[in-house]
Amino acid sequence: MKTIVINGSPKKNGQTMSLTNELISKINGDIEIIHVYDYMPLKPCLGCEKCKTQSICSQEDYFGDVLKKIEDADCIILAAPMWFGNISGPLMSFLSRLNVWRNGYETRKDRVHSWDKAGVLVMTTGARWKSMAKSVEATVEFYFKEMDALMLGSIYANKTDVLPSKNNFYALTQCSYIADQINTWSKNKEAGKNYVYGYSSWNYMDYEENRK
Ligand SMILES: Cc1cc2nc3c(=O)[nH]c(=O)nc-3n(C[C@H](O)[C@H](O)[C@H](O)COP(=O)(O)O)c2cc1C
Asked: Which domains are seen in the chain, by residue range?
């Protein structure tokens, strides 16, 4: 199994990556980490709409290699610090380049969803308020959808201002639970069974649509 981590924090060893490291230490297979900040200055989608007719982004740059890595991965982990109630802006900009795939499914029709990947969100937040995770989860569903990933689950460490994520018992318990889920999912995938598994309102709807 290949796992790719996309880290949207400017910090390679910050709260989000330290929690993500707890998770990946428990999962089997090869792991590659992409730090979004290694790609500065980021080149977000230009909205040029060329990918409505061509399958290659008009900006021929690093993102072609990133797409290849995503394509080759079985499991995708989005490591996202919360910024102003959502995932960090640079992570959003980075992932906006998935538009070239989105138009493949929806406009060019030269791509079909395979849903053969698992997606996991790891999020840390400085503070805590009621239902804060919901907007983030709803947002990442869009990105997972474009990456053919069904969400296996989410891991949250909040109040990192006062409690380091690596000491957050609740988040560490979630890491163990989700790691088990990923390992079981990958065993099933390798055995060719039950690999369409996980949840996502968007993904599930589309999956049903594609089966018709
Ligand atoms: C620009 C910016 C915006 C932030 N917005 C929020 C926020 O809306 N809610 C919150 O609880 N924490 C917020 N934080 C705090 C981070 O979510 C928190 O410190 C996080 O654990 C940082 O993870 P990192 O060390 O991996 O970067 C913000 C931090 C920054 C730098």
From this structure: 2-211 (3.40.50.360)
